Amino acid sequence: MQRRKFIKNTLVGFPLIFSPALFALNSKEIKPNGKTVVVIGAGISGLAAAKKLKEKGFNVIVFEAQNKVGGRLRTNRTLGLPFDEGASWIHGTIANPITNLAQQAGMNTAFTDDESLVCYDINGVLRNDTAFSHAEAELKTILNTLKNSGSATQSFETVFNRVHPTKVNDRLWKFLLSAYVTFDLGDLDKVSSTLYDEGEELLGEERIATNGYDMIPNFLANDLTIQLNQRVSKIDYSGAKIKVTHNDHITEADYVVITVPLGVLKSGNLQFIPNLPTAKLNAIQKIGMNCVNKFLLTWDTGFWDNEQYICYTPEIKDKFNYFVNVKKFNPKINALMTFAYADYARQTETMSDTQIIDEIMLHLRDIYGNHIPNPTHFLRTKWQTNENSFGAYSFIQVGTEMQHFADLAQDINDKLFFAGEHTHIDYFSKAHGAYLSGIREANKIMVAFYLGR
Predict the structure, then answer these.
(1) Where does FAD bind (predicted)?
(2) Binding site for FAD: what residues are annotated?
(3) How many whole angstroms separate alpha carbon 425 and alpha carbon 405?
(4) What is the phi/psi pair of residue 140, to 5°?
(5) Per the annotation, where are the binding residues?
(6) In this structure, what CATH number is given to the domain that contains residue 45?
(7) Are 249 and 321 members of one domain?
(8) Which residue from 19, 257, 291, 409 has the highest number of Cβ atoms inside 10 Å of its Cβ?
(9) What residue numbers bound the domain in which 244 lies?
(10) Which residues are documented as binding site for substrate?
(11) Could you report the per-residue pLDDT of 422-435, keeping only the tens digit for each?
(12) Given this model, what pLDDT does residue 1 score?
C-alpha cells in the first residue's frame, strides 16, 4: 500500500550529521573509557542507537517496558502465523535502510500490487474499474492543490468539505479519503490543511513482511544488553550523572537516549527533572498522534476475490472498508486483514471481539452473500489504550509546525537525546524514519564524547 507515496513521489537523500569529529569516529576505533549510555525503549530506533554505540565501545543498557523487543514492530504469532500488529510494509525499497536490514535479518517480503484491487459498493454492487481509477486520479489532483485553499487554523476536512461539497456524502469518496488519506495522515478533522503533504517518500516497490516484521528488531537486539519488563518512570538529569528510575531502581548514565513513542511523551507518565525545555514540551503537545487498528480473520477456506486488495464503500467512514488478501502472499493461509482509522479505531477498543467480528462480517456478507461462514480465528490491536504507545504514529495536525519535529529531535545539554519516528522531519510515521533517528542520535553521542562534552 503506497500511502503517502500517493501524495508525494520524491526521492531524497537521508539527512546526515556531518562533522570532522563524526567522520573520524566512524572511520576508526574509539575508547569511550567506560562511558555508559542508557537507551529507553527497545523499538527499532532504540535498538539502532544501542547497536551502533556498542560497536563503538560504549557500555550500553537498554530498558524496555514490554516483555519483548520491537516496540511498535510487534508480530503476534499465537495462531501459528505472523500477524504484524504495527508496521507491515517496507514503504519504498530504493535507498531504504529497512531493505538491507530485512535481508540481513531474514525477514521475507512480498511485492504488493496496488493495481490488484477490486471495489464493491453496498448491496455487493461491483464498482466500475474505470470510474474508480478516475476518482483516484481526481483525488491525486485534489491533494496536490487543496493546500492552496487551506489556512493554518483549518483542518483538511473543513477545507475539503468547503471546496468539494458534492463529495462529502459520496460513499466512494468517503472510502478514498479514509483508506488513502486518513490511514496515512491521521484524523481528517485534525490534520493540517496546509502541511498535510509534508514529509518525503522513497521510490521502489511496496513490500509486505511475510514471516514477521519482528525479525528486524530481533536481529538488531542480538548481543545487546536489554532488560525487559523495565518501565522507566523518571529521568533526573540535574547532576553530572543522569539518574534513570525504572521499576523503583535507579541506574546512572553519562548519556540517555529516549525513544518512547510520542503518545507516551504526551501522557506525562515519564517524569523529567528538571522539566523539559518549553520548545520540546510545546512540540509534544502540537504534533498529533494517529490511531489505526488492525484486525486479522482466518477461515478454513477462502471465499473472496483473488486480488491483493478488496475495497468496500459503506456509509460510515473509517470502518472495515479495506481488506488485504493475505492469501496472495501466503498461499497456505486463508486470511483477510482489515483496518479501522481515527475515531472509529478508538471506538473499536471499547468493543468486544464478537461485536467487531459481527461488524466486519456485515460488510463481507454484503459483498459475498449471507452464506459465508464466520471466521475460525480473530486477532486485533488496541493501539490507543496501549500504555506503551497511546496511538499508532505521529502526524501533522492543525497547529503543528515542521520546526516541532526538529524540536523533538533536539538534545539537551549533550546528555539527553531523543529518537523515534516522531523526531524525523522527513520520515515521521515510518519505520525507516525511526531507524534513521536512532543512528542520528548515536552519531550525536559519539560527537559529544569526542569533543569532551
Answers:
(1) 45, 64-65, 232
(2) 45, 64-65, 232
(3) 5
(4) -60, -45
(5) 45, 64-65, 232, 339
(6) 3.50.50.60
(7) no
(8) 257
(9) 3-109+207-287+400-450
(10) 339
(11) 999 999 999 999 99
(12) 37
